[in-house]
Design brief:
By secondary structure, the chain is mostly helical. It has one domain. The chain has 7 helices and 2 strands, in the order H-H-H-E-E-H-H-H-H. The protein has a two-stranded antiparallel ribbon.
Length: 248
């Protein structure tokens, strides 16, 4: 038996899986070493390649084309999942911006992005919840199902992917408002109250009162939004699984 017939499906499947893991959360987090991602990609590729085949007369040009196709599919699906789960970090950034914590931005070397305390906290909690609730299994399951719809060498339907990305953007805003909405409403009412207080007593400095008051409200009521995260993360995992299926 030709060894290439066995190794090529594994290599091509591992390429799609590895590119996906590098981009899609929770595996894309910088705390997971690249070696672990590569080993996990090869292991999952080996498991998913049992029913996959490549043409026996495959040329070098054809092999390069299939490799590029697998990389594009993995990257496209990874971007879709990353966009869906970025809703949690967006909710944290909304709270940072409206609660006065945006001034405490810091660079996160794990994600290579700048963000405030709540943005980084919510992203970390989302990653933890994905592993604790086994939500990552849904993400991997959606990737495994993509091999049924898009076998090795298939071309990703960019139109379907673009449609799912557009839907993911709307889901991003919806989920962000679901998480941060109650606290945003309270902060808005606090601004209105401070504005009315300034009209009644112009001598009061609204800016001097506003910053500590909004920070106090954010820290006090922040537990409400944190309590909503498990349900939101579970819903986002379902949306990621469904989105992968529709994109393929």
């Amino acid at each position: 038996m030709d060894l290439s017939v066995v190794l090529l499906p594994v290599a091509l499947a591992a390429l799609r899986v590895t590119v996906f893991l590098v981009i899609a959360p929770p595996f894309s987090h910088g705390a997971i070493p690249g070696t672990v991602k590569a080993m996990l990609g090869v292991g999952l590729g080996l498991a998913m390649a049992t029913t996959l085949e490549v043409p026996a007369d495959l040329t070098a040009a054809g092999l390069i084309g299939m490799a590029l196709s697998e990389a594009v599919i993995g990257a496209g699906l990874g971007v879709l999942v990353a966009l869906i789960f970025s809703a949690v970090q967006s909710a944290g950034r909304l709270i940072d911006m409206l609660g006065g914590f945006e001034l405490g931005q810091a660079f996160d070397p794990m994600t290579m992005t700048n963000g405030g305390p709540f943005g980084r906290l919510y992203q970390f909690l989302a990653i933890v919840l994905l592993f604790v609730s086994d939500g990552y299994q849904l993400v991997v399951g959606g990737l495994a199902r993509s091999f049924d719809a898009l076998p090795l060498g298939a071309v990703l339907d960019l139109g379907a992917l673009a449609e799912q990305l557009a839907g993911a953007v709307s889901q991003l805003f919806l989920a962000a408002l679901q998480v941060a909405g109650p606290l945003i409403a309270v902060l808005f009412l606090a601004d209105v109250g401070l504005g009315l207080l300034t009209r009644v007593a112009p001598a009061l400095n609204a800016f001097a009162l506003g910053f500590p008051l909004k920070i106090f409200i954010t820290l006090t009521l922040g537990s409400i939004t944190v309590a909503a995260l498990p349900g939101v993360v579970s819903w986002l995992a379902d949306q990621a699984f469904t989105g992968i299926g529709r994109a393929t």
